[in-house]
Amino acid sequence: MKLIHKLLITNLIITLLLVLTMFSLNAITNKRMLNNVFEDIDNEAFNLIATEISQQYQQTGSIGMFIDSKALWYELINRNFHSSRLLFSPNRPKPREPRPFSLEGPPQKHMQNEGMPPPRNKPMADDFMPFEKRLSLLDAKGKILIAGNTDTEVVNEQEITHNGAVVAVLQLHANGNHVSALTQHYLNTQINISLWTAGIGLLIALLFSYLLARHFTNPISQLKEGAKALAERKFETKITVNSSDEFATLAEDFNRIATELRRFESQQSQWIMDISHELRTPLTILEGELEAINDGIIEPNQKAISSLQEEVALLSRLVNDLHKVSTLDRYSFNYQMEEIDFNTLVTLQAHKYAFKFQSKNITLNATLSEQPVIILADQNRITQVLQNILENNLRYTDEQQKVWLDLTVSKHHVFLSIEDSGPGVPDEALEKLFDRLYRTDSSRNRKTGGFGLGLAICQTIIEAHHGSIDATKSRLGGLCITLKLPLAEA
């Protein structure tokens, strides 16, 4: 199953659950609320009917007219019931104005039909009983005078009294299903509306879920195709995401990775070419001199042997430097970190190289700290960095020039600047000094210079200590190498 299908199904399930939850809560709330409302209306009509029966008994001394005439009984019920319930009952007629009861003569035919409840074409519920069918009138001894439905429980009861004596009892029975017909009618209507709303909502949710899923999956598809292209070494691949969200950031990171891979591939090719060149030169010299000795052109004397040894030494130095680089890359996690005094370490190396600089008529100056500067570092590796940089100053600084060490401390870092007064390097070479096998031929030669690995080794070590190393123009006119290392936490 693809991601777009999972998103669609997830959104539809969430929408369906929300609709069902809202529908259930709405049904339960409405059922309770409407039942309470209609029960209050039934009780209000019941109390009005009981009051009017009591008043009729006090006026006439009898309630026989209700027993003898169903029309009068239903008219009494309708007159009081409709006044409270008309607005809720679509099947009820408008109430007529109340009219006084008459006991003269038998009830007329029109009188019998006038107060009768209208027939219902479609009952609202199969077991629903209309209000008039739920009323029972009993005498003081409990004998039923007007029978209602006695199969359900009595929900309201009121005694009809005269001069303190009970003359009758009016009872109201519950519906068979304990749910008001109007409540059920309203709930059925709500169910139909909710079903239509849910259907339309699901269609809308499906449409927007599809659009949203496409919005999410399109960038992912581009990233997938881009990753496939990178796996095929097509490092010129670029992807574009027209948004400002996390996908756009991810696309930028992807493009940056592609750029770095392309740059790394170019550097790797250049590195292999440079290694081949560095190896070819001494090997060519060795081959030529050995052939000359073999052909008798050069005698195998001390001078010839010294020349061969010099070329072998160059080869050994190159191999050793390459081994150092590979060892640092592979085992960078094996640095033996401990708290050391960086100020003392710099002072010690400055003293060691002071005589070498003096022998070349180069002045070595140092501005160091009077207090200990504690860093968390591998002492041997940091010493190697200082020696590589000082060796470069010793090789490439002209005689009668100066080398200056300047150590400063900030709140969280220590900075060491090692700068010389010349001859320096071209501006375009500053950013390439830390590339492996890069050499500025104008300032060094194969005999006295290195192979362009010293500063690359320094950068690897410093970055393993969470620091940085930079090359800039020196204030003295030459080159300035600046180390930045974090201080040990107190």
Automatic annotation (TrEMBL):
The keyword Iron does not apply. SUPFAM superfamilies: ATPase domain of HSP90 chaperone/DNA topoisomerase II/histidine kinase, HAMP domain-like, Homodimeric domain of signal transducing histidine kinase. Residues 214-266 form the HAMP domain. Residues 274-489 form the Histidine kinase domain. The chain crosses the membrane at residues 193-213. It is a multi-pass membrane protein. One of its GO terms (molecular function) is ATP binding. CDD domains: HAMP, HisKA. Its EC number is 2.7.13.3. It catalyses: ATP + protein L-histidine = ADP + protein N-phospho-L-histidine. It is found in: Cell membrane. Its main location: membrane. It comes from the Bacteria. InterPro entries: HAMP_dom, HATPase_C_sf, HATPase_dom, His_kinase_dom, HisK_dim/P_dom, HisK_dim/P_sf, HssS/ArlS-like, Sig_transdc_His_kin-like_C. Pfam families: HAMP (PF00672), HATPase_c (PF02518), HisKA (PF00512). Keywords: ATP-binding, Cell membrane, Kinase, Membrane, Nucleotide-binding, Phosphoprotein, Transferase, Transmembrane, Transmembrane helix, Two-component regulatory system. PROSITE patterns: HAMP (PS50885), HIS_KIN (PS50109). Residues 87-121 are annotated as: Disordered. This is histidine kinase. It comes from Pseudoalteromonas lipolytica. The lineage of its organism: Bacteria, Pseudomonadati, Pseudomonadota, Gammaproteobacteria, Alteromonadales.
